[in-house]
């Protein structure tokens, strides 16, 4: 979402919507299309045009900074099948991320009904999402888990504590370099 704010016209920033969540995908719709000279293929290769220099400067100083213009590349490293749609007529840029079906989840069943591991009795949907994420990304940091489940730090910590109490996850390493692992 912060990437959407940095790269689109300042006057349109207030129109950026929360992600649209669907059963099979997540869509992020940003107002404004790609500027002249940029194509979907060029942004996949790392090209970027900052159209909000004041906000970009502010974000670089106040948020975790990983390099200006690196968001699309990092997103593609995490999920290579993200689809980007530039719509000049509708003046919008859409990112579509397909959801991956969890292993053990049967079609037409709820997330806890379809998981056949037997450990999910007594855990809720967010805890199940955290376990799925840790299976994909062992050693994840708390902020990465919070981003994935789209919750704040305090809520995420509460769910992590619950999962630790149930002995389903553990934290390994120091506070600075460690991470969470599924047991």
Automatic annotation (TrEMBL):
One Pfam entry name: HATPase_c_4
InterPro entries linked to this entry: RecG_C_sf (IPR038475), WH-like_DNA-bd_sf (IPR036388), WH_DNA-bd_sf (IPR036390)
UniProt cross-references to Gene3D superfamilies, sorted A to Z: 3.30.565.60, Winged helix-like DNA-binding domain superfamily/Winged helix DNA-binding domain
Entry protein name: ATP-dependent DNA helicase RecG C-terminal domain-containing protein
């Amino acid at each position: 979402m912060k990437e959407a704010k940095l790269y689109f016209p300042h006057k349109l920033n207030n129109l950026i919507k929360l992600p649209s969540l669907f059963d099979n995908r997540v869509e992020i719709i940003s107002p404004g299309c790609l500027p002249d000279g940029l194509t979907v293929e060029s942004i996949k290769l790392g090209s970027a045009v900052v159209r909000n220099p004041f906000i970009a400067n502010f974000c670089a100083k106040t948020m975790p900074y990983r390099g200006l213009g690196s968001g699309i590349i990092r997103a593609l490293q995490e999920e290579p099948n993200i689809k980007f749609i530039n719509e000049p007529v509708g003046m919008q840029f859409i990112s579509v991320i397909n959801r991956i079906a969890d292993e053990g989840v049967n079609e037409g069943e709820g997330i806890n009904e379809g998981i056949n591991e037997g450990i999910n009795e007594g855990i809720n949907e967010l805890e199940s999402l955290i376990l799925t994420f840790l299976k994909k990304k062992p050693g994840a940091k708390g902020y990465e888990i919070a981003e994935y489940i789209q919750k704040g730090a305090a809520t995420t910590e509460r769910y992590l504590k619950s999962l630790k109490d149930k002995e389903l996850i553990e934290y390994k390493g120091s506070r600075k370099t460690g991470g969470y692992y599924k047991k």
